Amino acid sequence: MSKISKNTDSTQIKIASHKGKLGVLLPGMSGAVSTTFIAGIEAIKKGLGRPIGSLTQMGTIRLGKRTDKKSPLIKDFIGLTDIKDIVFGGWDIYPDNCYDAAVKSGVLKNELLQKLKPTLKKSSPMKAVFSQQYVKNLSGTHVKKGKTKMDLAEQLIKDINKFKKDNKLDRLVMLWCGSTEVFLKITKVHSTLKSFEAGLKKNSKDIPPSMIYAYAAIKCGIPYGNGAPNLSADVPALEELAIENKVPIAGKDFKTGQTLMKTILAPGFKSRLLGINGWFSTNILGNRDGEVLDDPWSFKTKEESKLSVLDSIFQPHLYPALYSDFYHKVRINYYPPRGDEKEAWDNIDIFGWLDYPMQIKVNFLCRDSILAAPIVLDLVLFLDLAKRAEMFGIQEWLSFYFKSPMVKRGLYPEHDLFIQQMKLKNTLRFLKGENLITHLGLDYYD
To answer: Cis ω on the peptide bond leading into residue 252 (within 30° of 0)?
Structure first.
């Protein structure tokens, strides 16, 4: 749960300065998402592209009444780190520098990459913590060795400290952009920080690499976000450490293609009380993510994340006549020729007045990494903001960006994209001592 002192008198929260250099650490640095993000930021710096899709760069926020006509850019309103002050680092199981990795990923046009080549060539990943036990369809050579998982965590901590010192950084953020790991459930080793650290020393099979990265980041006091459906920081032990070290954490699983469409469409159906008989979703993609998800146990992790969205939005326990019996199926198929240009099909069987049936079909030809890159940027800047505002623990206000948002134990996550956006913007208003927007329509709140 996000912890912050209560703002009861409309005075703004004290937020440390956003000036200075911000280091961005990316596990999975040579993957399609990371390289598209890094190359995109470098292109924007040079005036070669625009940050389309980024709320922090292009979004506005309404303040006060509608008649006040006051809607500044979010980045001007709250004070976010300038992208010119971002420095990139990270780890990967492949040693390719960002230019070579971006070329292999095939997301961005070669014409653009040639203009960025000198800069991207300078960014190479550190050796990664990795075990094929958790990602069965990948094998890399650029991998750390250690007798225990605690030893590996300590190596990551050394990497973090060296990266900060070498680049003369003021602050750091870590965002997992690595692959989806095999499906794991919370066990006893995750229950407390003491049991977790004992598990690291005993090489517990229930602690995958993403948890080791999360532990290292939080131990160093660095905000941590998880862009995959892995448990990662979403266990009681690491939540305990985040509270203890006053570190903001967020996750899980970037909300990009098909699930983004679901969180846009499903709230509309529910708001009009249209019933659902079935929702069939299938995808084809050919990037590293597709290769990883070709393994049934990695797909199981992703499936759990994608399936949870509709139940949460439709609330069948409240609307049993409309949503208690609908059938939901999700499929992901690895198809190498498609590369990063994923294609997602949805067939939705709905019913309306007098139970008359209707159908909706969606064919979304999307680009996963193009949709993910602005999410990475926003999360980096907002997690840094949370740290500077002394917000720590789970940052539920960042649910806007995730398929399977982290929430306090015992609560259900909010998946409605529009409610998530309202919560995010109201959090920003709260931090600056502005009135929250309630849309009550009364004269004094209008």
So the answer is: yes
Q: How many CB atoms lie within 10 A of CB 84?
A: 9
Instruction: Classify domain 22-254+369-431 by CATH number.
Output: 3.40.50.720
Tokens coding 359: 């159908």
Q: Give the pairing of strands 357-365 and 224-226.
A: unpaired
What distances in angstroms separate CA 237 from CA 188, 199, 406, one per listed residue?
10, 11, 14
Number of other CB atoms surrounding residue 411 within 10 Å: 10
Domain ranges of the chain: 22-254+369-431, 258-365
Q: Where are the alpha helices (DSSP H) in 225-351?
A: 236-244, 258-271, 288-293, 296-314, 320-323
d(CA 152, CA 145) in angstroms, rounded, equals 7
Phi, psi of 421, rounded to the nearest 5 degrees: -65, -40
Measure Cα distances from 4 to 233, 370, 429 in Å: 20, 33, 14
7/246 Cα distance (integer angstroms): 18
Longest dimension (CA), the chain: 68
Predicted structure pTM score: 0.93
Question: What pLDDT, on a 0 to 100 scale, did the predictor assign at position 294?
Answer: 81
Highest-confidence segment of 285-294, 345-354, 436-445:
345-354
**CA dist 306 to 26, 28, 301, Å?**
23, 21, 9
Both tokens of residue 143? 């991998």
pLDDT digits (tens, 9 = 90+) for 336-362: 998 888 899 999 999 999 999 999 999
Whole-angstrom distance, CA of residue 360 vs CA of residue 176: 35
User: What 8-state DSSP symbol labels residue 134?
Assistant: T
Give the pLDDT score at 296.
82
* C-beta atoms surrounding 66 within 10 Å: 11
Q: What angle do CA 245, 250, 253 make, to 5 degrees?
A: 145
Distance, CA of 343 to CA of 362 (rounded, Å): 10
Helices (H) and strands (E) in the chain, counts: 15, 11
Indicate the pairing of strand 224-226 with strand 275-285: unpaired
| Fold (topology level) of 258-365 | Dihydrodipicolinate Reductase; domain 2 (3.30.360)
Between the alpha carbon of residue 12 and those of residues 79, 394, 420, 432, the distances in Å are 13, 21, 22, 4
